[in-house]
Design a protein that fits this description.
single chain; alpha/beta; 6-stranded mixed beta sheet; 5-stranded antiparallel beta sheet; binds adenosine-5'-diphosphate; binds magnesium ion
Length: 381
């Protein structure tokens, strides 16, 4: 099974917790120097799989070969030197500075002198974009910075393999990119074998050599990122990739923070593989609608963004108050010119330029504007 090219081979891996199977005869193989993204629904066993790989969990049965050696026969310390891991929750030592967090293991396990370890630590901090933060404590760093220290700490052992378990899931959306950027740069360097459990589909697609789709305790489908994201073969992979996903939040005129909104849209766009142009369209459209329409007559909007199976984006804006329907605005109509007519006309043209479907309805107490932004950009009229 194992050859010069393979770094990790997993055969019939089984793991149960209290009699409940979590991994069921999982087979997988990672080539040397390969970047593998692991995607799949929550509860699929992704974390358990990574934890079995570096012996944080003991498999019930099956075999894991690391560079040709059965992991059960390896000294745990040796295995962990070969294989680093980065967790969702950073897990830095709170009472140690960034540099001390990084140098602890190389000093005790690799027997580096303090000077050597400090030099290595500073180099690694620079590599993850944190030059000068040697003496900062974790609580003085943002989540994104802490995670970058955690990556530097894993790199300090010069591992041949590095495992990332949802490294950006605990971060504020504004910090996701700085961490993905660091991981991306590692992926482009030669040599290291990487496994990354992630929900960042755009990222997974860009950096991976292989994608594993995990479901119900097995690698249910694997393949090149183009195949898994565009034409997966098996039904559960297809359902997962095409799943309609939405998220909602309330927007208040008083403290509307455009940068935060932008970051949330960015996050959503990345998750759903929306290209840069569509993301821009969405952000421009929403900003325009908030500033030049909704905030004229309401202080609060319930905003929902969703993506359909066809990758069209659905926007929903709900508010309480006056009926102000932009879609019925008509420059030639005989209706008396109320104070909203110009605004409605302008808004109507913005909507017609971007949306392939638009409805304005009363739903319970709310007035609701729903727009469908098609996958193919609408040409500007
Ligand atoms: P994923 O990372 O894909 O979300 P996990 O590997 O974390 O999935 O968990 C898979 C299943 O195993 C879940 O149902 C979870 O509750 C269960 N599980 C994971 N670790 C433990 C544990 N230490 N004890 C009991 N159940 C666990
Ligand atoms: Mg997990």
């Amino acid at each position: 099974m194992s050859s010069e090219k393979t770094m990790i081979v997993v055969e019939k891996l089984c793991k149960s917790f209290a009699g409940v199977p979590v991994l069921s005869n999982l087979d997988a193989s990672f080539n040397k120097g390969e970047i593998v993204s692991i995607i799949g629904p929550s509860g699929a066993g992704k974390s358990t799989f990574l934890r079995c790989l570096n012996l944080l969990e003991t498999p019930d049965s099956g075999r894991i070969l690391i560079d040709g050696v059965d992991s059960q026969e390896m000294d745990v310390r040796k295995l962990r030197m070969k294989m680093g891991m980065v967790f969702q929750q950073f897990n830095l030592f709170p009472h140690l500075s960034a540099l001390e967090n990084i140098t602890l293991a190389p000093r005790s396990l690799l027997k580096l002198s303090k000077a050597e370890a400090d030099e290595l630590g500073s180099e690694l901090l620079e590599k993850v974009g944190l030059a000068g933060k040697e003496w900062a404590f974790p609580k003085e760093l943002s989540g994104g910075q802490q995670q970058r220290v955690a990556i530097a700490r894993a790199l300090a052992m010069k591992p041949e393999i590095i495992l990332f378990d949802e490294p950006t899931s605990a971060l504020d959306p504004t910090m996701v990119n700085e961490v993905l950027g660091v991981i991306r740069s590692l992926a482009y360097e030669d040599g290291m074998t990487m496994a990354i459990v992630t929900h960042e589909m755009r990222f997974a697609r860009d950096v991976s050599d292989q994608v594993f789709y995990m479901d119900q305790g097995v690698v249910y489908e694997s393949g090149a990122p183009e195949v898994i994201f565009e034409s997966p073969v098996r039904p559960r992979t297809r359902a997962f990739i095409r799943r309609v996903d939405t998220f909602s939040f309330d927007i208040f005129e008083d403290n509307f923070d455009f940068y935060r909104f932008d970051a949330k849209i960015d996050d959503f766009a990345m998750k759903h593989l929306l290209d840069h142009e569509r993301r821009e369209t969405l952000v421009d459209l929403c900003e325009n609608l908030f500033d030049n329409f909704f905030f004229m007559f309401t202080k609060r909007i319930s905003f929902t963004i969703g993506v359909t199976e066809e990758k069209d984006v659905e926007l929903r804006f709900a508010y309480k108050g006056e009926e102000v329907n932009p879609l019925t605005a008509d420059i030639n109509s005989d209706e008396p010119v109320d104070k909203f007519t110009a605004v409605r006309l302008l808004t109507k043209s913005v909507i017609l330029n971007t949306s392939s479907r638009a409805t304005y309805t009363r739903q319970g107490d709310d007035y609701v504007l729903e727009l469908l932004i098609p996958r193919e950009q609408k040409r500007r009229a």
